Amino acid sequence: MAATHSLSSAALSSSSSSFFSHSSFNAKNPKVSFPGTRFRVKCVATSQDSMTAYKTSVPRNANMAKLQAGYLFPEIARRRNAHLQKYPDAKVISLGIGDTTEPIPEVITSAMAKRSHALSTLEGYSGYGAEQGEKPVRALIGKTFYSGLGIEEDDIFVSDGAKCDITRLQLVFGSNVSMAVQDPSYPAYVDSSVILGQTGQYEKDAEKYGNIEYMRCTPENGFFPDLTKIPRTDIIFFCSPNNPTGSSATREQLTQLVQFAKKNGSIIVYDSAYAMYISDDNPRSIFEIPGAKEVAIETSSFSKYAGFTGVRLGWTVVPKELMFSDGFPVAKDFNRIVCTCFNGASNIAQAGGLACLSPEGLEAMRGVIGFYKENTSIIMDTFNSLGFNVYGGKNAPYVWVRFPGRSSWDVFAEILEKTHVVTTPGSGFGPGGEGFIRVSAFGHRENVLEACRRFKQLYK
Amino acid sequence: MAATHSLSSAALSSSSSSFFSHSSFNAKNPKVSFPGTRFRVKCVATSQDSMTAYKTSVPRNANMAKLQAGYLFPEIARRRNAHLQKYPDAKVISLGIGDTTEPIPEVITSAMAKRSHALSTLEGYSGYGAEQGEKPVRALIGKTFYSGLGIEEDDIFVSDGAKCDITRLQLVFGSNVSMAVQDPSYPAYVDSSVILGQTGQYEKDAEKYGNIEYMRCTPENGFFPDLTKIPRTDIIFFCSPNNPTGSSATREQLTQLVQFAKKNGSIIVYDSAYAMYISDDNPRSIFEIPGAKEVAIETSSFSKYAGFTGVRLGWTVVPKELMFSDGFPVAKDFNRIVCTCFNGASNIAQAGGLACLSPEGLEAMRGVIGFYKENTSIIMDTFNSLGFNVYGGKNAPYVWVRFPGRSSWDVFAEILEKTHVVTTPGSGFGPGGEGFIRVSAFGHRENVLEACRRFKQLYK
């Protein structure tokens, strides 16, 4: 899986080129010339073919070089495709990358279609929106998810998704901070930290990067780290309900976490992208914990609630009470990053977000979430019946299955080879995930049932 | 304009909080509990009110602290709003931030509406797309803009806009590179460079950041820098047609630029977001220049072609021939950033992009561009008739007007105060813009005509 220095057909470059002949512009004539195919005259290139490829003198970013292999999910997609090549007739079922499969409720897509059509009218057209998101969307996110929690509309930044916001948060923090993550955890936290230069080299034996505190979360500690043994870091990434373990932290645990951050002067980046999957009394937002506004940021997403993985809409809450050590508000720097490095979420997606948060939209989202939670039960029942130790599931669309003493990638490969079902190897989420497999509940019902039949066949 | 250490209502924080009472989950019942308002019980917060606000111990990122004031365009929006407060009845016309105003042609919005509706069907639903963009979109961008130039489909990365891609490119380059920009230029290049830590402090007297090479572009040098006097840098940002000067580089000039980069082993980041506005024989793409694939990246956008400033769709070309000094392909690192820090452009926006590049869509885009170019002519004629030296306009939607010996911000304020027209002060684009005003041609015809009447009144 190590990165290699070649790209398909890249090794021997030739500088082919062509020149356009252009029609001239007439300001009275709306037909403007452009680089289309019609006016093109292909010329013979100045030959610069050579067996030795040209290299610039620009040094490769040493942080990029630290990254191991590809980002996890494209790597899984690659293995899935390789499997399909090997078994072209196999009915491959993907319970791997956590991608939603069920159609978006019509109350939501109709609103997006309506907004699309409106963009063709003078009254309905809109260009650049506020980088922070449209005011009604910010307001409705606040009202729906943070009512009574002291979060104000201007604390909420609408985005194209939590994953993208994680990097924007890392841009705010910069290189000179230390960070902690749950182990296992969603790989974007660690990888973006490496990219920003917050970490040391990857230590192969430990399967960890230097200068990251891996907070081990296991069945033995109820998937909540023993904070008395965790050294202080500047930033603490914490995802609940957790991806991949599917466990969600209790109010007592989150109160401990906030107190830990406050004692250490740390900033928690709390990922609540699965909060609506919580069935019990566990908090849906870190801001339910007293004092959290002074130590926490929360990032979340419509992806897993409304099937917006392709539509792209999320948000991040940076309370104005959160300050750097010099008293400068973190929200001001985040706002600067959002304005400079981003240009707002698509206005059509934002229309979808508004519809999601209407009474009908909320009801429809609850229906979708309920469907996936039924899938979760089916998967949990299956592995339970086979005698596995099964975790997660109750408050999240992920089932975390233990395969004691086995390598996650081996189990992943075994399941793929023998059942044509794609899962995710636990070790892809950090060394603490070794020996586990994450099974995603995102799938059509018949696929989930069929996958479970095959699991029963394999592990009976 | 210096940043201050306060946010509205931020100084005195109180940790209000509330606790939810949750309904319990039943896997057979699709009604899932969620953080809505219905189940909320507001509690009295643990009081942590204090006159001394809590601060974390996390140091503020020193690079963020280097940034001067706000990003240019939000700052202009702020001044526009302040003006509106002062003159609530004024008919303010915005020829400032370069935001498109004309409706999106229906052939394009229909395709987006259709895709939206399809997301509610089993067959039409799609979740996560490839982070690099949908294959047909990549292919059609290649065919439309790069046919015969040796750019392949997999060299093209579809994105949510060129501005966002600029930061992603900076993430690839990291902190240890030096960079050059045209002066004046679109401020995202410099600001993203500061954020990544490539620069020194801001030098107030010079109005420049340390460790950035400002390549002065003036009427005297035909808005193309004298490359014999420019020291080598790792990265060269180059925008043509240029924002803000509206000038576009000739084939000879771009050949010089590519040769300069090649001699120095530099990487050019070529911003061609206005290429379709070119009326004459000037190149639409840096890849028309022989050898450019080994030294250049190109970033572009549908924003100014199809009115997609709010829809968000762009692309970046990283040829596989482009290598770092160690021979590692730049495209591989860019791909890693795209996969780790981004999740693809909205699938609905991508459906719009496909429609833009259909024969009818291209014709429709040419119509929109032609309309804006007529606006440009009207603005140029106006300032010419008033005896100003006027630049740009021919190949771009921007008119660059000289006000010799005057401060750009003073002229901006004078025009706003006396005509209620918002322009952009040239110095906002770098010290080389001092003494100029950028007038954007994005506007409804009657507004452009009215603005020009007011200009004639003011400067007759």
Automatic annotation (TrEMBL), chains A, B:
<dbReference type="InterPro" id="IPR015422">
    <property type="entry name" value="PyrdxlP-dep_Trfase_small"/>
</dbReference>
<protein>
    <submittedName>
        <fullName>LL-diaminopimelate aminotransferase, chloroplastic-like</fullName>
    </submittedName>
</protein>
<keyword id="KW-0663">Pyridoxal phosphate</keyword>
<dbReference type="InterPro" id="IPR015424">
    <property type="entry name" value="PyrdxlP-dep_Trfase"/>
</dbReference>
<dbReference type="GO" id="GO:0030170">
    <property type="term" value="F:pyridoxal phosphate binding"/>
</dbReference>
<keyword id="KW-0032">Aminotransferase</keyword>
<dbReference type="GO" id="GO:0009862">
    <property type="term" value="P:systemic acquired resistance, salicylic acid mediated signaling pathway"/>
</dbReference>
<keyword id="KW-0808">Transferase</keyword>
<dbReference type="GO" id="GO:0008483">
    <property type="term" value="F:transaminase activity"/>
</dbReference>
<comment type="similarity">
    <text>Belongs to the class-I pyridoxal-phosphate-dependent aminotransferase family. LL-diaminopimelate aminotransferase subfamily.</text>
</comment>
<dbReference type="InterPro" id="IPR019942">
    <property type="entry name" value="DapL/ALD1"/>
</dbReference>
<feature type="domain" description="Aminotransferase class I/classII large">
    <location>
        <begin position="91"/>
        <end position="455"/>
    </location>
</feature>
<dbReference type="InterPro" id="IPR015421">
    <property type="entry name" value="PyrdxlP-dep_Trfase_major"/>
</dbReference>
<dbReference type="Pfam" id="PF00155">
    <property type="entry name" value="Aminotran_1_2"/>
</dbReference>
<dbReference type="InterPro" id="IPR004839">
    <property type="entry name" value="Aminotransferase_I/II_large"/>
</dbReference>
